[in-house]
Structure formats: structure tokens, C-alpha cells
Amino acid sequence: MSIIEATVAWLTDPANWSGPNGIPVRLGEHVAISLVSLLIALAIALPAGLAVGHTRRGTGVAVSIANIGRAVPTLALIGLVLPLTQALDPINGFFLYPTLFAMVVLAIPPVLVNADAGIRGVDAEVVQAARGMGLTEGQVLRRIEVPLALAVILGGVRSATVQVIATMTLGAIFALGGLGRYIVDGIAQNDDGMLFGGVVLVAALAIGAEGLLAGAQRLAARRGGSRALPPGSQLDLPTQLSTG
Q1: What's the pTM value of the predicted model, to 2 decimals?
Q2: Which of 107, 121, 171, 180 could form a disulfide with 41 if both were Cys (CB 3.0 to 4.6 A apart)?
Q3: For the chain, which domains are there?
Q4: Integer distance in angstroms from the first to the last C-alpha of the chain?
């Protein structure tokens, strides 16, 4: 039986779609952990990126943090934090928290950099005109800069999402669930169908998330200018954005 035949046979076997180790359960685990990782990363990186882009201060620090996050290998990072997290929580500290921490670190750089770049890329004349109309700095950020930069910001979220979905499979090495479980178990059991079935499922999830966020990014690029108009104003805002 070829690898393709073995993969199709495994994916179409009803036994693999039920039970605690079934595909729906593993898919749910993968999505849940990825989503939590992304939400934590967004809570950290998005406000920081918006603040740096708006104030034009701290860019060097932001770039340094992003470079460090990109340079540290994810598997090595999981191994480094595992002894500490396991000491704090002997159960979850082994299989969950190290991978969750590593995914957050992985997701922060693209969100941080794109938020900064998106806000910086807004036309300075538009920002100055908004200030001249009496908008506060917070209003300028919320009503002008963020809508115009939204496509670029979503580009960072899109990149972070795909990276997290694909890389979270490494957590299965440390007994984490998710779709990576099939890849690790497939290698351990010399089961090509399970191994490549897991690869197909991870790829399909990543491609689906990529397509969904790409559509949202294109929509934001088209609507960015009109959404940025303050109510009742005649400010002529640009409607075209470069999404990078």
C-alpha cells in the first residue's frame, strides 16, 4: 500500500473519527490551544505595537523583542521552560504550559511588528488633519489610524495564526494533545497512514485559517478608508492600503 493509499484509508476509517482520540477531539484540542495562544499574544503584542507606532517611541525595543522571539527555536524554548513549569504544576506544567508559552512567544513578533508598521504607514497628513479637527490622541488612534492600518495589522495576525497552528504539533513530543499527536504516534508506531493523515489535517487547518484571515484582510483593505471617517467630517482619507 502506498503512502497516499494508507493516508486516505486512515482518514476515511470511521474508527478514527470517534472516541477520545478521534479526529474531532484532536482537532478541537488543536484549535483551542492555538486560539488561547493567539489571544494571549494579541493581548501583549497588539497594544504594544499600536502604542509604539502611534508615539513613534520604542521602535528599537520592539524590533529587538521581535528578533529575539524569531531567533529562539520553538522546541528548545519548550525544553528550557519545562523544568520551571513542571515545578510549579507537575501535571499541566509538563504537557501544556511549556508549549503554550512557546506558542505565545512565536506569535508575538508578527503581531507586534505589523501593528507598529501599520500605524506608522498611515499618511501623516491625515493624522495631522484629524488632530486639527480636535480629536484626542486616543480618538486619532481608534478612529483614524487603526481603521486605516487594519489590513496590515490583520496581516500580522494571519502570519502568527498559521505559524502557531503548524508549530504546535511539536507539543505532542511532550504529551500534548492536538493533531500533532497523530504525527508523533504515527512515527512511534511506524504507521504511515496515521503520520501523513496528521500532516494532512494540520495542513488543512492551517490553509483554512490562512484563507479566512486573507479574506478578512482584503475586506479591511477595501473598507479602511471609509471606516476611518469621523462622523460628519469632510476629511478626504485614502482608501487604498498596502497590506505588505
Answers
A1: 0.87
A2: 107
A3: 3-227 (1.10.3720.10)
A4: 44
